[in-house]
Specification:
The chain is of the alpha+beta class and 157 residues long. The protein is built from five helices and six strands, in the order E-E-H-E-E-H-H-E-H-E-H.
Length: 157
């Protein structure tokens, strides 16, 4: 559903933003990069199927060489716990065995811990997206009409 009015992500929640992806460095080495590509969908299905893991949602982008997934998590502990779980360890071990010995494919991740009140957003003519998809959304009001005001919204009691 497209929200035509000005919306923002619900404020006042702690969250972790985890950016993960891969880069195809050698298109002709399909046997090296395709297994890395193929490892992500089962993990995504697992995350969406098990809300107790602390995963909130993700947004993905694809360009000529790079796939980037921006994931939203409830906490660092839940993210690192998932990283030690069987589905992720299987994918990591497979990558390490097959692809780490070549430069045909690269992987990367970045983790950002965002305390409550240290994010702001605005969405116009958009479906639920990014932070709003992860945390829920609400209309922008006169009390939250500027970025500065949205950044000063405190965590609900």
């Amino acid at each position: 559903m497209i929200h035509s009015n000005r919306m923002m992500a619900k404020p006042g929640q702690d969250l972790v933003v985890f950016v993960i992806g891969m880069r195809i460095n050698k298109w002709t080495a399909v046997h090296k990069w395709f297994p890395v590509f193929k490892a992500m969908p089962p993990m995504i299905r697992e995350l969406y199927a098990n809300k107790n893991l602390g995963f909130l949602s993700l947004q993905g982008t694809f360009n000529l060489r790079t796939i980037t997934l921006i994931q939203y998590w409830e906490s660092v502990d839940q993210l690192t716990s998932y990283a030690k779980g069987p589905q992720h360890l299987k994918a990591w071990n497979s990558f390490y065995k097959q692809a780490s010995k070549t430069n045909a494919v690269g992987i990367y991740h970045e983790t950002y811990v965002i305390p409550a009140g240290n994010y702001e957003s605005v969405y116009v003519n958009m479906p639920s997206f990014g932070l709003a998809k992860a945390l829920g959304s609400e209309p922008i009001t006169k009390h939250t009409q500027t970025a500065k005001k949205r950044l000063n919204v405190k965590k609900p009691l």
